[in-house]
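Cross-posting from the modeling subforum.

Setting up a comparison between two proteins and wanted a second pair of eyes on the formatting. Protein 1 (sequence, then structure tokens):
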Amino acid sequence: MRRLVSAAEALRLDRETLLAWGLAPDTLMEAAASRLASTLEGLLAEERFRGASLVALAGAGNNGGDALALLRHLSFAGWKDSSAVVLPAAVDSLAALQAGRLRSGGIPVHEWPSPGASAALARAGLLIDGIAGTGLKGPLHGAPLDLLRAASACSAPIASIDLPSGLRDGAGPGEETMPATWTLSIEPRKLCLLAPAYRPRAGVILAVEGVFPLGAGRSGAFLADSGDLDPPSLASFLHKGQRGRLALLAGSPGMFGAASLALEAAAAGGAGLLTHYVEDSIFPSLAGRVAEAPGGAILRPESALIDELGRHDAVLVGPGWALSEEHARLLGLLLESEVALIIDASALRLLPQSGPGGREGPGNRPLALTPHPGELSALSGLPVDAILASPGGVLAELSEVWKAAIILKAGTSWIAAPGGELCVVDGQEPGLAVAGSGDVLAGLAAALLAGFEARDEGGRGGRAARALRLAALVHLDAGRSARAEKGWYRAGDLLTFIARSLGQP
């Protein structure tokens, strides 16, 4: 997994590296410029950039200095048509130093605003964005914002250095940021790049390694991708109980589609024994009509669940569930129990009514919450746009309040666990934006958690977060495979690919 840091942590890492190694102030800037140039040269090799004009946009801070130093490295590599547009910088700043070096080498440097700066933007074939970086404390305004808007209006592609200008820790909804075609991310990667609201503005993220020491940074946040997919290795002699015994409280009159998808996903996810608990009022008609529920689940009435909890390794509650006082009471009993629990969909809306909050006691009884942005908004009281702009804080707070691992299901999924652990899965799979996709993810995560519990796999305290992380990666892998084979697909089409991903020897 790739380490993620906040912008504030990145600034601290910069200072600590300079101090620890006794480096001069511009040494890291030169290292960054060299690595950035190597990365950008790969893009500039494309035919469309042959003879194109490169224009660096530089603010007054170190990000601006990086852009200008990069332009010099590209000039040394043979790129002839280049210029810079700069904002006023302090005379003794690194940005001013780099601008002076460009002027000495004969590269045009235009101050913004000016006719020369506007002309350079108009003929640019590629813009290198260094207007603002990790030191940004609030939304852009004044001349930096004017330059960002002018650059955004150009037709040229944009390569942002480290962060698209305007992006920052704690960004609020609707703040203006540079629409980058590529972001050249100086690793460790900045967490704010992956905020669901702003992730599209970063374009393609390219890792720039080797500027800071390998493994630098102390953050507990990580980026997981397909290379981190680590499905359980199951022995050939397992019986169905060791694959996990999962109970599902799901469905209500007119809402059985969600329950069916969750049940089938749990079967595809490897659960060995499924029991579907349905409302008592409809149990007789269902039991008389079908021998078993989707996924091979045993049908039982909800009123029997509490007495039968000892038979199950985990319980999933919520897909297609009715909102009622009785269900709120039942959810409260489940929270008080010792069973591993995943709460999804309608049950998340009932969660505040079900008890004082969280699981009391030692905190090692696995609990997972699987909200989409609207459900997280209802649970937290924050507007959806604020959550999507900066989800880290609210997830960390709710994870501690409920003693739960929580996944925010969005374009990039954020998974928080008590103690400050945070994992992000950078999805970018539009096929998963389909009705029922979340029900599939919930059923899959519940099956994985039930299996971990049945086999006593790992410490109990981390099982919920591991189940959510693995489920998110398998779900994403299945979505990509389904679209490659089928084009647009339904949520049910994911099941075959999930089963393949987890069930192959």
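Protein 2 (same layout):
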Amino acid sequence: MIEVSYWTKIQTLGFVTIPHNVSRLLQRKEQLRILRENVMLIVRDYNNIIHTINDKEKSLFKEHLDYLDRTIEPGIRRHNWGSQADNFVYACRKECQDVFFYVKKFQNNVMKINNEFEKISTTLLTNVQKRLYILSEFIRQQEDTLKVREQDFINSFEKIARKVMKTYELFIHRSPKIQNEWLKFVHRLDESLERSLKRSVRNTLLDLGHYIVDDKQKEIVPIFKVYTILDPNHVNWKIIHDPTHEELKTRIQVFISQIIHVTRVVPRIEKVFREKRDEKIARMKKELDESERSGTNTAQAFHKAGMKPDVTYQNLSEEEKEI
């Protein structure tokens, strides 16, 4: 267009003669500029998705992206500068916006899940203060704290499980290959959860050790009251400690075992996901059967049940073979 505008200036000098088709093109300058801007909107929307999503997420959203490519491809082959492409632009931009919304929803849910992982990893399972404790009082207080932390773990896991199932709604209607990618994603979540739990236990044990051994001076810091008396009934006036060293050691070891085993209250995400998925699929199939028995046509029955006719809602055993 810029070149043609200059050609019109030098045409008056007789140096060039602009072809008729080029003159017509110049007359459509504003229309073509608008068309170009509309096409660039599609390009920017598409590139925004590609720049937002990482490689692992691309594997999960492969069918979404393939459908988007199929939506754009006919316009590339069919439309030219002389055709109207408004419907094409609207369809492509809507599909781009839908896919971008799904990607951001997925990423936001993953961020909230990771926040719960971070919350778990920074949780101390004890509440030890720098003062002298009676052994029984110390154990009772720390066991009470441990129960509270267990409930905190359970609450965090329930939030994680809800977010996982909410996120899975983006992929429940997809092919077995995508189900396989989803299982890999859930497996990575389980690994992150395991690391968070281990970090919480490790930090708790380190914190407990800090109250016993001073970091700077490396000296023993007493936190337990031990009563020492002489037994007059013994011939040599035997010294008696209450609690004894062995009792103190045993009770602390038992409590440390409780700290280590507190992670058992949190199941694997994959196990809970499979159970909830099976329940959801069974519920959807039941609603489909009820709709068909009530005389609803096939398309409406699938829509009412939240299912798609061209999708096989099978168990995950087939996808497991590819993991």
